[in-house]
Amino acid sequence: MRKRMSALLAVLLCLAMVLGMAACNNTGDGSSTSDSGEPVDISTLEKWSEAMKAKYDGTTITAAMASHPSTTAFQDMVDEFTELTGINVQWDVVEETNLKQKELTDATSGGAYDVLMVDAFWINEFASKNVLVPLEDYLNNANKTPEWFDYEDIMAAYRNGISKADGVTYGIPSAGETRFIAYRTDLFEKYDKEPPETMEEFLELAQFFTGREEGLYGVSMRAQRGIHFASGWMSLMYNFGGGFVDQSTIGSDEIKVTCTDPKTVESLQYFVDLLKCAPPDVGTYTHEEALGAFLAGKTAMWLDATALANQITDPESSTVADKVAFVPTPTGPEGDGAALAGWNLGISQKSENKDAAWAFITFMVSKEKSVEYVKNGGVSTRSSCFENEELAAENPSYPAQKEALEAANGLVEKGISWIPQVADSNALLDIAGKYGSDCLAGNISAQEACESMQTEMEDLLADS
User: Are 178 and 404 in contact (CB under 8 A)?
Assistant: First the structure.
């Protein structure tokens, strides 16, 4: 009898210990709690780390990432993350062109990934295909997202413009870019010119500098046939009031295509006129070739991604590093507007370690770690970084970047997304870039190009 009682007591004691551990480590919403059932203090990185380690020590997550400076920065930070949280990270780093398909395949037939690096161009498609976890429940839960993460510190343009679909947040902006102008201060001083403030001035300056000196052209931009051409065009299209679709009709039974709107046609003609002031092979330029032409001193101006600014000011890669300055994208006939693109970190719906994946995102893109991230080569999305004196001293383009991002958020506040928020957005851009390239080549007029776009986009959207 005594043996039976002892055995029963032992079982009850073990059960109590198991229940006690469960009560200590979990609540109904997955947040950490103390023995008394109160939330664990995660107000500092140290306290957060202790809570994460108590819950997830020994957990392994897999991150699908693009080959990108931000990925390298995260990898430089991962040892500290693992030491603090006990969460091990496996990496699958692939070229951007292959990453999307790998993530979509995993979402339908895999389940290997926990953290997904997602281009802003993919957000709508991924949301419609249920690839990503909506993040509001994480962001609004004080037991999962500490104050030092500071979501509101992320530039509003990024929060509102690259990470949402139908108003729902699916990603945390981890690297981003707008577009702005770099210009040669030596040339502008030599010829007594001021940097452009309007689109009219921008074109006039590009025309002025083209041929002004041997081998010199006015501007360099991306314009390769297809999406690159469309992306370059979109750098200035909204400043003219143009657009591929009436974005107020997105989500309705019939999305209105606006390629033949006179403002869209005008913006294409302007872009083509501007490209005539670029090197003759500009029709083959991606962002890399456009940057290379400016770094080599072949052009007086360059309009492209802010994420590339460090290369322009790096004397090891740039012949113009000591004679360059930056200004925001010029004002157009319909006011200000700037491009907006970038990368997000999100959680895969297939993940079996969603909370551990969120811990990774929390650490890597928090305000607490943002300066270290930028110093490691990451591309900032945070207001505090643009205002950080040490970082600004290393990157003189920061003030112009911040101005351009504020202009980009102005578009978002008008209900305009730089990337049309439709599942077929990449196909739309490919159509626009195809006919735009034909216009640049002189095969068709801007009006004819836009008419062809109109028809093909209407057919595409009708079938989707």
Answer: yes
| Residues 315-366 pLDDT 10s | 999 999 999 999 999 999 998 888 888 999 999 999 999 999 999 999 999 9
Which H or E run includes 217?
Answer: strand 217-220
CB atoms within 10 A of CB 201: 15
Rounded Cα distance, 325 and 195, in Å = 9
This prediction's pTM: 0.79
pLDDT band, residue 224 (cuts 50/70/90): very high
Measured CA angle at 426 (ends 420, 430), to 5 deg: 110
Q: Round to whole Å and give the CA distance between 136 and 20.
A: 30
Side-chain half-sphere of 96: how many Cα atoms within 13 Å?
11
Strands 168-169 and 164-165 turn out to be antiparallel
Q: Which of 187, 181, 180, 217 is nearest to 323 (CA)?
A: 187
End-to-end Cα separation, the chain, in angstroms: 74
Query: Around Cβ 142, how many Cβ atoms within 10 Å?
Result: 12
Give the confidence band of 409 by pLDDT, cuts at 50, 70, 90: confident
Check residue 38 and give its pLDDT: 64
State how far the Cα of 373 lies from the Cα of 343, in Å rounded to an integer: 15
Distance CA 209, CA 211 (A): 6
**Pairing outcome for strands 60-66 and 115-119:** parallel
